[in-house]
Amino acid sequence: MDRLRFASYITEKIRSCPLIDVVEEEAVDIPKDEITVIATGPLTSDAMARQIIALTGQGGLSFFDAAAPIVDFASIDMSRAFFASRYGKGDADYINCPMNEAEYKAFYDALIHAEEAKLHDFEADAPLTVFEGCMPVEVMAKRGEDTLRFGPMKPVGIRHPETGESYYAVVQLRREDEVGTMFNLVGFQTHLTFPEQRRVFSMIPGLENAEFLRYGVMHRNTFLNSPELLDADYSLRSNPRIFFAGQMTGVEGYIESAASGYVAGLAAACRAKGEDTPIFPKEPILTIRAPAIEAQLIETFLLLSINHQSLIATKANRVVRAAEGRKVLEFGSRRAQGADAAILGARAAYIGGAVGTACALDGRDYGIPALGTMAHSWVQMFDTELDAFLAYAKEYPQYACECNKGYGTAAHIQGIKEHGLCPIHRRTFTKKF
After folding, report:
1. What CATH number did the domain enclosing 228 receive?
2. In the chain, pLDDT over 70 holds for what percent of residues?
3. For residue 170, what is the domain's CATH number?
4. Which domain holds residue 333?
5. pTM for this structure?
6. What is the mean pLDDT of the chain?
């Protein structure tokens, strides 16, 4: 992953979105009454971290993480270093800096006695809990003289590509960017002071005159105790208007962090619209743990209330796709089993893609466009259907539209023309879904 290109791509997408206002200043407060998504990452600033602790009532989870130094490829002495694969597997993408026994022991002694940097005031309050996978190399070295030789400096499978020579220990560097101008020291996360990093790491063969583009640093990574604090939609249980996303929720990696942001953002948007949390495919909508008899008592209600709506939404979407761009209206209220079923069924059809509903209550309660034909009760108030249509057309001329399937078409058109209601909007639906 080229971090700079990835960051530039995301930044451009955000800045070019007309629905996003970018405010470039530090956020130090969390709105309590607004829908908010917090994605400040494990490197959350001191001020925001305190706000989160005050909001959650606990510090969550945290440990100290360390980053490895990065050096300029042009400054590496490739007469002493060479390209090879990692432990003899894969492509020759790693720079290898080999050491003999004397060089390793001198480097080891300098490393374990080097000066470490002090923690910041905010970090100093927390116990020094180190993530095992990102342990500072000097901390690992103090476990024993050969620890590094069986860890990040393991020489197994690494031989010089020309001479076949094997080595006592090897430091490997991995490409940091796509073009290969920057390389980081693999496994050399560190908390040494910057001058000590230059002094000690310059003892590595090939890095005697290396230019350090970034020194290694240690920082506190802050995470939430998500299983206890967050719901499945990443909202805070104590305040459902606040959502968290990204690595601070406990996910790891670019894709995983982006996915958590998608879920939190979608859930936040639904909450803003008064909608329920979206359910993703192949995920349980609801899980009930209870003795069989007790669970069966509510099984029928759950099946009807959930399956009824999902069935209508799915069917409506199939009809909309089959209509190939033509508008689809929902007319199912009179066939629903009860008022609630009619209202929720019409809403489900609208979610599925229908442009409107004949259920007027959905127009009032959910803002769904209320559309449809004259009610049967209206038609039965007149002697003929033509009379009913003409009365409606005179009352609502802007909404009058005859939908005719063929029965009595000629007579209806002639009658409408005689009353001066032109032009006639005649629509005949023949496609079957």
Report:
1. 3.50.50.60
2. 86
3. 2.40.30
4. 292-366
5. 0.53
6. 84
CA dist 394 and 397 (Å) reads 6
Q: Are 328 and 429 spatial neighbours (Cβ–Cβ below 8 Å)?
A: no
Distance CA 123, CA 318 (A): 56
Is 12 contained in some domain?
yes
Edge to edge, what strands does the sheet with 235-236 contain? 36-38, 239-244, 235-236
Pick from 348, 271, 273, 362: which is nearest to 304 by CA? 348
Q: Give me the count of residues in the chain.
A: 433
Please spell the DSSP secondary structure of 215-248, one letter per residue: --EEEEEEE--HHHHB-TTSEETTEEEEEE-SGG
Return the closest-CA partner of residue 43 out of 189, 215, 221: 221
Residue whose tokens read 């094997």: 166
Question: CB within 8 A of 102, min separation 6: which ones?
Answer: none
Alpha-carbon gap, residue 212 to 371, rounded angstroms: 69
In this structure, the answer to whether residues 74 and 204 fall within a common structural domain is yes
For residue 332, what pLDDT is reported?
86
Consecutive H or E run containing 387 = helix 385-395
Report d(CA 188, CA 71) in Å as an integer. Answer: 12
Helix axes 339-351, 308-323, angle to 10 degrees: 40
Give me 406's structure tokens: 């063929």
Region for 60 from its dihedrals, namely left if φ exceeds 0, alpha if ψ lies in -120 to 50, beta otherwise: left
The torsion region of residue 423 among left (phi > 0), alpha (psi -120 to 50) and beta comes to beta
326: amino acid identity, one letter: R
Main-chain dihedrals φ then ψ at residue 62, nearest 5 degrees: -155, 150
Q: How many whole angstroms separate alpha carbon 32 and alpha carbon 241?
A: 8
Label the pairing between strands 212-214 and 182-185: unpaired
Do 350 and 306 reside in the same domain of the chain? yes
Token pair, residue 240, equals 């459902």
Query: One-letter amino acid identity for 305?
Result: S
User: pLDDT tens digits for 173-213?
Assistant: 999 888 899 999 999 999 899 999 999 999 999 999 999 99
- Please determine, for residue 96, whether its predicted confidence score (pLDDT) is greater than 90: yes
Number of domains in the chain: 4
Q: Do the bridges between strand 61-67 and strand 217-223 make them parallel or antiparallel, or are there none, so unpaired? A: antiparallel
Strand extents, DSSP E, 100-205: 169-175, 182-185
Residue 25 lies in a domain: yes
| Whether 390 contacts 415, CB under 8 Å | yes
In a domain, 239, yes or no: yes
Indicate if 43 and 75 belong to the same structural domain: no
